[in-house]
Amino acid sequence: MSHDSKGTLNDLVSAAKSDGIDFIFLTDHPRGNIDTIPKGFKGNYDGVLIEPGSEKQGFDAWPLDSTILDWKIDKDTVAKNIVSKGGIIFYAHTEEPHNDTGTLGLIKS
User: Fold this and answer.
1) Global confidence as pTM
2) Domains in the chain, number
3) What is the DSSP string of 48-92?
4) In a domain, 4, yes or no
């Protein structure tokens, strides 16, 4: 999975099912400025939907489609591109202050 978590796909699916969870959104740190989605699990596993995403520049991104994210461009453009194609953006690490000018909260598809 990631250096931030432990477990197998079976562990994830079993835990989700036992807790009545229908979907899991995963994030991982990109390995450089170009990020390929998906890098790992994507799809329906025994009734649990898993969507992979990426975390960088203060937000989590789930393109909801196979894609390449170019983290060299500014985060506002990355966010707008993802949302315009039906993806989802959230702040990462909400326990930390964000100096965002509002783009993530104002994006409309």
Assistant:
1) 0.71
2) 1
3) EEEEEEEEETTEEEE-SSSEEEETTS-HHHHHHHHHHTT-EEEES
4) no
